[in-house]
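Review form for a predicted model. The reviewer records the input and the model, then writes brief findings.
Reviewer: anonymous (R2)
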Amino acid sequence: MCGISGIFNLETNAAIDESLLKHINRVQSHRGPDDEGYFIDSDVGLGHRRLSIIDLSSGQQPIFNEDQSVCVVFNGEIYNFESLVAELSCLGHRFSTHSDTEVIVHAWEEWGVKCLERFRGMFAFALWDRNKKRLFLARDRLGKKPLYYTKTTSGQFIFGSELKVLLAHPDVDTRLREQMAEEFFMYGYIPEPFSAYKNVYKLNAGHYMLLEPCTKIQQTRYWDLPVPTKTHSWEDVQTELIERLNESVRIRLLSDVPLGAFLSGGVDSSAITALMAGLQETPVNTCAIGFNERDYDESDYANQIAVRYQTNHISQIVSSNDYHLLDRLSTIYDEPFADSSALPTYQVCQLARQNVKVALSGDGGDEVFAGYRRQRMHLTEQRLRDKIPLHLRKSLFGGLASVYPKADWAPKPLRAKTTLQSLAMNTVEAYANTMSKLRAEQRHQLFHPDYLRRLNGYSGLEIMRQHAKAAPTDDPLKQIQYLDIKTWLPGDILTKVDRASMAHSLEVRSPLLDHVFVEWAFSIKSTDNIRGTEGKYAFKKALEPYVDSNILYRPKMGFSIPIAEWFRGPLKHSLSSTILSENMLDSGFFSADTLKKMINEHIEGKSNHADALWCLLMFAKFMNRQ
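Model under review:
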């Protein structure tokens, strides 16, 4: 795992500043503490930070083809590189290393942009073809590895693995993007292809860019979830699922450094650990964190799997009041990021790095097999939406939602406001409403009237609508799985894991997000993924021989921290001073009266605004660094 960076003369003939390239590359040294490398040509400069995983002795980057005319810097792993090396060698290509990186330059020579169709792995890379004067940038299908880019006013194209790389360049435009607050308080992150900054973008998952001097910057999609033309029978699913997942795990065990697995005690990490145990002769290295408050602790379940498979297990109990890491977290993500589970994710990566350099994770199981409660709720609501015309639903349920209180204090069955709102909407609007950190009316109350006027009717919903248009099916469950895979997965889950792991120079591999496995799983019948109130049904049934039932069928817990209690206790003073800082109040985004009211109501116990206040706290920490 590594970090990449670069400068390309898009609309200028300026000399590449080698000292500047080294400067911006070194701000991401945490991504690759083992080595660094550079390539400078007349029109391009490429930088690389290396975390050595495969071919420790000769895998230094940049890596070239035989005549040095093609050069690449690469972040990620190509798991099928050995078969590609064999194929390309038969076609006359000569390899000088045993690194998976080298396969990229020869695959480009042989197949051009279609080389992406051959790669199985996680990646973001930049390849320079000197003969064609062409810069080729690409990102893996599901967005496991990040890539940011911008164009300066002087005409140079700057890119890097993290935003901080670009922000270290003196010519990069750091003006904030007007719409980013609306998007952040809806999603809890800034969705692709946008960033918090006006002219800085993310390369979308499953996309590439092909640049030559004086060409237009344009992203091109090379992969999408396939149309599920053939659904699998129940018998085939039960037979094939473990076989296919075994293969996905197996190809991720290749490493020249110590390797292990995260073991949270949930379904997905338990499944990965179980299959790893059957694929290697030595005990699996596993790690877990537990919390000193039982309501947030899953470590007993992790220990249960560790004992069953006799893993080399390390477990660490951390304080649920470990909020001193909040400032550190806000700097890791470079832009506002509101997933509170980033804190325990950071801690488990820190623990894992004490013993291994590579860890397999269970990320992706809920997206691929429909394990979220919100997905089950959406299907229940959709059955009612399908029976009642939209105009009647808007009148009936919309009216009820407008008068129903936001009862965060009440038992879950009585918290009906969001459900009533969703029943008055179409499918995409309803799912976006369910997914939102703050619903539309909450955002409107939060924002300053002048900001709402500047938005001119724009809503973060537009991003989800655009993805919904490309959905390959009208199956209601698969539609929202598609939306999760296009927004939530790359924007939240994979961003969280990449930054938390890279902060500790740890590589994380996700077998459940192998694109071949995902394509196959997307054709599983929705009725096999959700049965009654049970999500991930087919997955859990297939896992019964490998994972104990009390783990498979217990209520989903997830990584949680007691933020509501923090904000009424040890963090209440810093909460107020941070959110009501001069930078926040002068930003033009917020209504100061609403901010003060939310803080006071929460601290006094009149309302539970924990989720909104967490978003505001993370946003404020970002704003206070500007």
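Findings: The mean pLDDT is 92.
Further findings: The longest strand covers residues 70-78.
Recommendation: see findings above.
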